[in-house]
From TrEMBL:
PANTHER family: BETA-LACTAMASE-RELATED (PTHR43283), BETA-LACTAMASE-RELATED DOMAIN-CONTAINING PROTEIN (PTHR43283:SF7). Gene3D superfamilies: DD-peptidase/beta-lactamase superfamily. It comes from Saccharibacillus kuerlensis. SUPFAM superfamilies: beta-lactamase/transpeptidase-like (SSF56601). InterPro entries: Beta-lactam-related (IPR001466), Beta-lactam/transpept-like (IPR012338), Diverse_Enzym_Activities (IPR050789). Coiled coil: none annotated. Residues 27-286 form the Beta-lactamase-related domain. This is Beta-lactamase-related domain-containing protein. It holds the Pfam family Beta-lactamase.
Amino acid sequence: MSSALTKYAELPEVIQRAGLEVNGLVLLSGGHIVVEWYREPYRRGVPQLLYSLSKSVTSIAVGIACDLGLLRLDDRVISFFPNKLPLGAELSPHLDAMKVRHLLSMTAGHEEDIYPAVVSQRDWAAAFLNQPVQRVPGTHYRYSTPSTYMLSAIVERVSRMNLVDFLMPTLFGPLGIDRPTWETCPLGAAAGGMGLSLSTEDVAKFGQMLLDGGVYEGQQIVSADYIRLATSEQSDNRKGARPERVDSAQGYGFQFHLCRFGAYRGDGSFGQLCLVSPKHNLVVAANCAFPSMTKLQTLLDLIFELAEEETGHLKKTAANPSGGNRIENGRCRRFDTVEELGLSRSSALRSPSNSLRAAQATRWLFAANREFVLDENPDGLRSIAFYSIEKDFELKIDYGEGDERSGMLPFDFTHPLESEHVFVKDLSLHRQRVVTSVEVPEETERILQMKLQYIETPYIVTYTVYAAACGIRLSFELNVSFGFRSYEVFGRIRGKGIINSQ
């Protein structure tokens, strides 16, 4: 590896030592992949839910539509929805003045969070247009996912296409991105402000296109003029910003957050990231599982620190060519495992003794393939049952008749298994990839801990089973969530029989 790349190559190890829950990261410098790293069991090519990072893609969809002459930034929002305007009341002058550019810059004029009021309705566009607009559009920044949804709905109206269909020949196809999934509103329009899934490397391609002024592999995807507008300050997001999140108080563009050093980013819940820094000729795409978005600021701090050091290093090597070449043939430094970083990790799942301890500790649990009926809980889980199959087993979870989450999940005491299961993404339940693993902690024989890593999202579910006098105690933990994150519930054996406590 060229000595000029040593600083960026440190990033995965720095992330690990900082305790940041980064699942995948791709770093491009000068248009070349310098670092590509995934934390097991996450890997290259698996689509990742982007949450609000979807907004930045919707912004580019608007830019493309403008370039094609399908709409203008100063078009009035109500002009696209004449059949959805409020009935029986005089049209609000602020609603009448709302333009496409105001939706893009999060200055539509709403004072409060209108998300709950909009998504609780079947027709999101009509619900949006029925919300009070207290401020003059363009004068008040208020982050609004429904505003981005309206952009998606507008592009779909003017193109007469589903948003993904519109973007396949204009954005995704030219970037070499396979047709992605994008969650929709109840009427079938792409959610716009959330719900898009792209792989980490595809997000990096998107970032490189932005860095190159809308060009990718010689093709102009979106005009440089639109990129300039979208990534320069269009509204002021500094009021009320948390001081520890400095890169969230540098101004806001068209669905992009502005950062220090002249950089900008799209981001989403739990730390989904597309960072572009023209000063450093740098793009970073990351998928994370941060329980707090303050950790995103920590990640940005680490990236900018290395970028500043790298910039100084490149200046020195330019003045002293013997210091090494820059990037040679776009070589890629990939870190696919924690071991490659020289870091330790738990080997409990790989331990030969794990199967023996499991057999001893769980004999009571699997006896007669018992089913445990659970008390009422926030998740609505009704019962669980264990079906032993030699060295492995299946967990049956039951949410009631007709619930897609009910089913069987395979586990093996010697290694993780990948299968599919229905779990939530951004808006609704989806069948997706899940990696299951199981451990019997050494501190007690009567605990079974099962982990479900939904590798298309940040979600990790951990079930811990404790023996009880006539059943089990089940603990549920979710690493990140918009709602509840944990609960504990008692489970009684269905029918006759009690668990031997000896």
